[in-house]
Each structure stands twice: as C-alpha cells, then as structure tokens.
C-alpha cells in the first residue's frame, strides 16, 4: 500500500518523483497527468483529458500548430501513446476540443456580463476587458 508521503512523491507513471528530478525536467513539462487516486474514475478521466488539452496548447505555443505530434503530447502529459489514443484519435481532434473549450469559456464570460443591467457602454467595456 502506498502511504501519503510516497503518494506525494510519485510521478504520473508511479515512479518516485524526487524534487531534483522534477527540477531537472525544466520548462518543457507543461502538465503532468493527474494521479490515479482521484475521487472517481470519471473525475480522473476529466483531469487526464484536461491535462492533454493543456499540454497540447503549450506544445502548439512552443513549436507551432503543425509541428506537434501525438508522441510529444503523450510524453509531455506523462501518459502512454495508447492511453492518449483512448482519449483522442489525432492531434486535430485534440485541437478541436481545445478550441471548443475556449469558445465555451468565452461565451460563458459574455453570458455573465450580459446578465448585468446597466449602461451598454460599461457592459461593452467589461466584455473587452474580460477578453483582453
């Protein structure tokens, strides 16, 4: 059985994650896959999916849209390629999902701002401030 201390110091693959090892990974690691002891399997799956999206966005920002591969995403996320393919069939599907998430987030921001009564100019300024 893994105790709480060991749990805190294991990486996504279950290996002991020593602080010096973590530091040596440097800025290239964007997001590590969540640990397996989440509350539910569904919570874990959502966390892994989000880690994949976040990692892919970071890789695209670093290397460009067409330079990112499934192998890079799996490695940087801390999961195997087979696991990655269980979530998404290809990089384009990941990017589409990420884009949909961004649009949904922006629409939600706009909905919240639209609910506030008041001067239309002030509401427009709030929208522009939120999107900037």
Condensed summary:
The protein has 132 residues and is mainly alpha-helical. The protein is built from 7 helices and no strands.
What do you see in this structure?
The protein is mainly α and 132 residues long. It has one domain (4-131): Orthogonal Bundle (Tetracycline Repressor, domain 2), CATH 1.10.357. Helix content is 66%, strand content 0%.
Count all strands and give the number: 0
- Give the name of the CATH superfamily: Tetracycline Repressor, domain 2
Major sheet characteristics: none
What sequence of helices (H) and strands (E) makes up the elements? Answer: HHHHHHH
Q: How far is the first residue's CA from the last residue's CA?
A: 48 Å
CATH architecture classification: Orthogonal Bundle
CATH topology: Tetracycline Repressor, domain 2
Summarize the topology.
Blueprint: H1 4-8, H2 19-25, H3 41-63, H4 70-77, H5 81-87, H6 91-115, H7 120-131
Descriptive keywords:
mainly alpha; disordered N terminus; 7 helices; Tetracycline Repressor, domain 2; 132 residues; 66% helix
């Amino acid at each position: 059985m893994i105790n709480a201390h060991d749990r805190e110091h294991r990486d996504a693959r279950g290996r002991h994650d020593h602080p010096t090892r973590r530091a040596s990974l440097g800025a290239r690691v964007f997001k590590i896959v969540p640990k397996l002891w989440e509350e539910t399997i569904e919570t874990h799956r959502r966390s892994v999916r989000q880690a994949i999206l976040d990692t892919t966005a970071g890789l695209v920002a670093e290397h460009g849209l067409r330079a990112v591969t499934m192998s890079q995403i799996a490695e940087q996320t801390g999961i195997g390629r087979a696991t990655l393919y269980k979530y998404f069939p290809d990089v384009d599907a990941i990017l589409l999902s990420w884009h949909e998430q961004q649009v949904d987030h922006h629409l939600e921001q706009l909905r919240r701002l639209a609910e506030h009564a008041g001067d239309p100019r002030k509401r427009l300024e709030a929208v522009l401030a939120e999107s900037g």
